[in-house]
Amino acid sequence: MDESDSSLSIRSDVDPLKKVIIHMPDEGIEWVTPTNKDYLLYDDIVYLPHMQQEHQVLQNVLSAFGGPSSVYDIRDLLEEILRDTGVRAELLEAVRSLESLSEKAFQVLLEIDTVMLSSALLAGYMHEREVIVKPLPNLIFTRDIGAMVNDHALICHANKAPRKRENLVTWFVLRHHPMFSDLRENDRYIDISGDAKTLVDNLCDESISIEGGDITMINKDHLLIACSERTSQAALSMAMKIVFEKAVVKKFTIVDIPKEGYCMHIDTIFTKIDDEDFVYYHKLFKDQNQVRITQYYQDGSDPIKFDTLEDLIRSDYPNAQMIKCAKGEEFYEDREQWTMACNTVAVKPGVVLSYERNTHTFATFEEHGYHIVMAEDILSAFEAGISKPEDIEKTVIRIPASELSRGGGGPHCLTFPIDRS
What we know:
The chain is of the alpha/beta class. It has 14 helices and 20 strands.
């Protein structure tokens, strides 16, 4: 792993992707059953081998554009920090406190080797037919565990119990892995907890939650975070205080959206796809009755309000091109919003990844000047030397997702970018 340059920054959600954290769907997903799927936040049970194949295509595209050392699995990062016995002991104490582990379970985790422990903390672990720790089947959606805001890392706090151990893992990785030494040495954290014990306390407090799917870097001066089903007003107030004290951005916009499953995070409503292009869910994006928008300023100016998300976006980008999910057509719009047509991730300005099943939205992209290409085709063209990533412009890359889409998240959800040039 190349860690020679530890300076990380995200100034916009569409700048060229250089480093990203993902997590390959692991065997813990096979612990999801028809009876526990709702608790574990899954819409359905999925077929793991096919899901892994689809995720591998996603990784291959990310690597093709970002370079061979651009994609990191959180499992590998965790394994590396667990080689430090001090970090290992502190993390396990935090897990024991958060999840009230039995003494037997704690001792089992203390005694297994580093590779197995890394797997156990993410994919679950059974010992002598007894469940020692449960899996984290939602960790494939690494967007929710953190976000880079310019050169600072915002550390998230999950809203739902099955995801809270993800935040312990992320906190320790961001605090101890060598790749994040610049953050550590210069205290570049937006951390509403500050230490592991407070993090555990806050994770046990149902009023404090903030998840990465609600965080959008509109541009280097403007951070947007939604108050949603998964992100609380209390956590937003705490984060905004830190952001402004550290002068990380000039504008901090809070968007209060419906507390409903179909829009659990704001990245299910819209994502930025080019410097001034956005794909959006028409029914909510232009609705002034279902959202409340307040923009705050680092210089202490009076907050201002916006009627709609479109008004907010056009305050920064008057000429923004707004691309409707499935052309805004009845039935198709709702179907494709549900299967994450608005949830894209950019590998460079104007080049994004999207699930292949959202065909009506692809037609809308084409009407706005975008090329549509299958992931396998573009990867084959790169391998054959027919084209190069730097030559690709105004393109939507279709990612296979018959199983990934059933997990409840899109390409944006599946990626935690930590560096964009």
